[in-house]
Every structure is written in C-alpha cells, then in structure tokens.
Amino acid sequence: MKKKIIIVAGDPNSINSEIISKTWKAVNTSIKRKIYLIGNFNLIYKQFKKLKRKVTIIKVKQLKDRSSPNKLKIIDIPLNFKNPFKVSLQNSTKYITESFNLAHKLAQNKKVKGLINCPIDKKLLNKSKKIGVTEFLASKNKINKDSEVMFIHNKKLSVVPITTHINIKNVSKKININLIIKKMNTLQKDFKKLFGKSPKIGILGLNPHNAELNSNSEEVRIINPAILKLKKKGFYVEGPLSADTLFINNYKKYDVIVGMYHDQVLTPFKSLFQFDAINITLGLDYLRVSPDHGPAKDRINKNTANHLSLLSCVKFINSLN
Length: 321
Hints:
Isopropylmalate Dehydrogenase, 11 helices, alpha/beta, 2 domains, elongated, twelve-stranded mixed β-sheet, single chain, 12 strands
C-alpha cells in the first residue's frame, strides 16, 4: 500500500484553496491517489466555485485507497461561515485547531508519508503567544524544549534560524551555547536522514561585521564557543560568518546557512529564490512540510496566487522513500 500524503487546508481566509486547486491540476494520477485534504468540505467547494476552479471533490471519513484518483478526497472538519472568504476569527481559530489536531493524529500513522500544511495567520494557533506551526507541532510531539528546527529548503541551499517568531529585541537574550548545539544536533540528525549525508554548515554571527569580535559580543561569548564544541563532535561547521556578504556568493560552499534570527536568513534566501522553497520542521516524529509563504490575504479571490511552493512540498514528500 502506497503511503498517504496529508494536506491541511489551513487558513480559511487565504489563497489556500487556489493554490490547492492549481497544485492538484499539476500532479499526476499516481500522486493524486495518495493525497488527503483536511478541511471543511462546503467551504472548499464554495471557494473553488467562486474561483472557477474545476476540481471534483469527495468527502471521506478516513484514509483509504478506494476513492477515484481524479477526485480530491476531503476529510471534513466542521466550520461555521456565511461568506466563504470572510470567516470570523473565532470560527477560524476553532477550525484550525481541530484541523491540526486531526492532522497530528493521522501523521503518526505509519501509513502516512508526510504532513503538509497550507499557510495560516499565526494568531489562529495561539493569540497570546503568537506561535507558528513549527512551535505548535513541536509542542504536540512533546519533543525536548528548543530541539525543533525550522528548515527552509530547496535543491540549491537550505537555511535555519536559531530563533523563530520572536521580536528582534529579544534575540540576544534568547540565544545561548546550549540552544545552538541543540538545534544543530537536530539539524545534523534529520538532514542525514533526509538526504543521506552530513551537512556542511555555515553559522552567521548576530551583529554587523560580527561586532569586530569584541570580547563582550555574542559572537565571542556564545556563537564561537558553540561552533568549537560542534567541531569537537565531528560536525562540518564554520563561523561565525559575516551576514552582510555571505549571500553574495560564498553561501554556495555550504548545504545549510544558520542564522540567529528569522529574517537574517529568510530575507536573503527569498531574495535569491523567491517561491522556490519549502519549510520543513525537523525534530518531529513525522515529516511536516509547508509552503514558504503566508496566507496572502491581499490576493484572496483574485486567481493570481503562485502555487509553486505547495507543489514543491508535494513533490518533495512524494520523492522520499
């Protein structure tokens, strides 16, 4: 039996139905047989209709192989709405939580190859903490604190932020030697599992020009000691590297560039590769992947959304043994 691919439909107020329909049209029958979408059947039906996307959908209750391969199989999640593109915050929050709870449960099944979630507005997961899907699923998996890794990947390069969805003013307070080593242990282990080799890692400093390696800088107190410990453990790692010039050309020497905060690595990566990227959470009990972009609320119901990142997610999971 071929393993299934689960896709969470994600934020109801988004471009997700559009990119799902475009991706569905772009994959072959063999892949279509494996796909199960978790979302609200009526919402997706009405959004497809408004977008004039011709996709035949069918409601199913569980993962099975008997449905027509040319029909998109949807495991229905309850949702109250009137306007299919203007679902209330309260209803959206409940819907997203139930969708991810079911997806998490199903993803632990050995018959599932991987979990893909379409983009969401982060406040739908936890309004007070503003956590992302990476942190939410790490909590669901009950993994060691701070061991999960946000891994942004394409065939040319991958990047990892040590801290993810926190304010810039808190980054220097958050980073420490143990945090960097924890993240790199997860990266090393899961990279080898996915790609069959250990990664060449370049680690950036935090400050402009690495703070000229001032004795009181994070580079000298935290980042360099972490790098030295990783080297003693046999990691291929170099740094601290200067972030302002690395992405001109020198990034090509490495498989993974590690930065201290989200935008330090995500901004240059997206400038270089745009939609050619997927977001993988490392450290979970199962493979979780998502498009490397948000819900794009400014493009809702315009039929102009780029689906290539979601398509890359599907192809990536399908390509793995």
